[in-house]
Structures are given as structure tokens and as C-alpha cells.
Amino acid sequence: MENKIKVGLMAYGMSGKIFHTPFFELHQGFELVAVVERSKNKAVADYPNIITYRSVDALLANEQLELIVVNTPNYTHYEYAKAALNAGKNVLIEKPFSVTKEEAEELFSLAFRKGLKVLAYQNRRFDSDFLAVQKVLKSGKLGKITEAHLRFDRYRNEISEKTFKEEPIPGAGIFYDLGAHMIDQAIALFGIPSEFYKSYGKHRANTEVDDVAHAHLKYNNGLNVFITTNMLVVKQQPAYVFYGIDGTLTKSRTDVQEAQLLAGIKPNDERYGREIAGGEGKLYTFNSEGEVVEEDVPLENGNYMLLFDEVYNAIRNDSEYFIRQNDILGQLSILQK
Questions:
Q1: Is 66 in contact with 60 (CB distance < 8 Å)?
Q2: The dihedral of CA 139, 149, 222, 336: what is its sign?
Q3: 3-state class of 9 per DSSP?
Q4: pLDDT tier at 163 (50, 70, 90 boundaries)?
Q5: Strand, coil or helix: what is 201?
Q6: Dist. CA 112–CA 88, nearest whole Å
Q7: What is the spatial distance between Cα 239 and Cα 228, in angstroms, rounded to a whole number?
Q8: CA 12/CA 47 separation, integer angstroms
């Protein structure tokens, strides 16, 4: 493909190595050009032709770069995205887009004035489990949804070595880390709530940030959505539960993409994104005689490459991006403390 978008990444930790470079390498619309590594040289070992810079300023000074990925610690997203926009670059920002709604509003305004794109990286909209439940909800089989539960759990009782996730600084804590995904998915399914309530907990020894968080989203049509993130769940609970007038839907978190990418499976591998049999959700409805009918929810293939298609089309074709500005502003209204 001609006229490829030349890309630079601000970091090459897990995010850069797993969630970005494999896709930029394979997508015909992008050329992976440069990365920032302040002291190491891991990227060049994986991509021999990549340019390694030791500072963000040096990366932004590269005039050929058209898209910058801000995949640095949460509290730096606003500062670095603003610097990239002022350098004339389009920007793709890891979640959370910024720490506050006000920061996001400023970035959107700056991008508009510069004639550039500032886009949110919300890959979990392309998880196989989310795509499966989204398909059922769109089918109308549940009727009017009255209550929904979305949760993202892990078990990590120790304090992470990633200090930016554990220190009491802006954007730290499990709600900004995992809650950002669930809030985005709730907004994708139901829109922005009319009101919300939050609660936090700290339970790991010596933790300085929340490791449990809940959000209750209320909608004008009577819908209640409950979001839970918890770092201390040994036995994973269903990630999605929806109660409707005509039925109930449950689904576990079963997307395989992160595990596959960590194992070195590339996005162009035929196995990539294929959910494992046995992970089907359950749909409970009624037949014409009023009896409960249980059926499996068909598996869907997850595909993060679709996000990069969206990024390309937004920049090259000025297409509407799948994450709208109001989605991000609504998300941050709920996330921020």
C-alpha cells in the first residue's frame, strides 16, 4: 500500500511490544519507524530497522513521523499527547486517554485547531467475549435490559514493580487500569449514563492505591449498570451478566488475544483471536409455552487489528473513529476522582 502512515512509539514495554508493534508491522497501511527506549535496546532486537531514540523530544523531532503512540504511564498521557500535537503529529493514546475530562477536552480542542487526529486506544471493544455479548444484545433476544454487570478481575496480591501503577499519583489504581475498559464497554452498549456512583477499596498489604473499585451507572430509562474491578479474585466470576425482560445472558472473560500475543503468536496466524471451545456464553429465554430455554452463545473471533483499520481510516480518509469524543469525555467523568 502506498502512502503508508509512519509511526513512532513513545515506549517499548509490554504495551508497545504486545499491543502495538505486531499490528503496525503487519498492517499494510502503516510503517513502524521509531521508538523511545531511554536505556535499553529491546525494540531493535525485534525490529532491526527501527530507529531507537533516548528521549521523547528526539522522537518528536523526526519530521517523517505522522502518528505517535502515547503508551507511557497514565499520568504522562496528557503532557506527551499535547507535545506530539504541537509537533504536528497525529496521536493514538493508550487508556486512560488522560487523567481528567478537562485534559481530554484540551487535547481534542488542540487537535481540531491543528487539523490533526487524537484517538483513543480502547482495544477491548474487539475482545471475542465482548463481541459475542454485543451481538446478542443487538439481536433484541433479551428484550429491554433492566440490569447489567460488567467485571474485570485478576489475582495479584503483591505490590507491582511498576511504581507508576502503585504510587498515589494521578491515574493510578485499578479503576484507571481495568475500570477504563469496562466503562468504555458500558458506554459502547448503553451510552453515557445520566448519573453514577463509585466506591473504592484498599486491601493488599501496604497498598497506596485502590485495588477494588465499583461503579453504579444509572440511566434515564431505568437501566442500572454495575461495574466491578478487583485485584483479589482467585476464581474468576462471569465478566458479563445481562438481565432483560425476555431473558438472561452470562459470559465469562475468554478472549485469547493477549495470551497469544505474549506467547509470540502474530495477528496474521490463523489461530489468532479464535476463542477456545467451551467458553461459550449462556442465553436463557422462554419458548412459546413459557418454558425456559438454555442455549450456548456462539463464539466470536477477537481481532485487535480492526482497531488499527479504524486508526488508518480516521487519518487517511477522515472517517469517523469508532471511539467518539463524547465517549471519552463520558468515560473520564466517571473515572476521575
A1: no
A2: negative
A3: strand
A4: confident
A5: strand
A6: 12
A7: 9
A8: 12
Dist. CA 212–CA 227, nearest whole Å: 11
Q: What is the residue type of 205? A: A
- Cα–Cα nearest to 100, from 83, 78, 121, 85: 78
What is the Cα–Cα distance from 184 to 192, expressed in whole angstroms? 9
Domains of the chain: 5-119+306-324 (3.40.50.720), 128-301 (3.30.360.10)
pLDDT of amino acid 56:
97
Give the chain's length: 337
Q: Are 214 and 190 in contact (CB under 8 A)?
A: no
Q: Give residue 2's pLDDT.
A: 75
Radius of gyration for the chain, computed over Cα atoms and rounded to the nearest angstrom: 20
Q: Quote the cell numbers at residue 249.
A: 445472558
C-alpha cell at 8: 513512532
Q: Which of 224, 232, 227, 236 is nearest to 207 (CA)?
A: 232
**Grid coordinates in use for 246?**
425476555
Which residue in the block uniquely carries the three cell numbers 450456548? 296
